[in-house]
Amino acid sequence: MWLIDKTSLSFEQIADFVGMHPLEIQAIADGEVAQGIVGFDPIASGQLTREEIARCEADTGARLRLQESTIVLPKQRAKGGRYTPVSKRNDRPDGIAFLLRNYPMLPDAVVAKLLGTTKDTIAKVRDKTHWNSANIKPRDPVILGLCSQGDLNAAIQAAGGSLTPPPPAEDAA
Q: Coil, strand, or helix at residue 28?
């Protein structure tokens, strides 16, 4: 709104800057849509300079360029432990067993991060000393909802493994 009201920029220039279609900008200017929207001053917010607007007003072929931000962004915090709902907690050893059997090249630290578990639990599943060892059945952690397929693929590739899916599990009944 502010660019429409306060400048003589073309609809194409404004549309290119804000990522909209020129007809949408024209409809806003005509008052057909978006009535009551308050204009946002891009100069006051530091997105544009008056010189940049003047340059584009003089040349209809020129496009507005966003001004580089001088604001120092805070570092993103590392993600903490992943919460697993109570209903899925018993599925975690099954996912660990699946990864250990089908992707043995994955280090314990990667498996722990991928499934949100501890190295101790992974070692117990591997050694079959887990309290529930008799009932652990290797099941795909993606299907169980413990991790995403993209995260699993990235971990396998980082460990130098093949992304070909493992053969279907056969029941030894």
A: helix
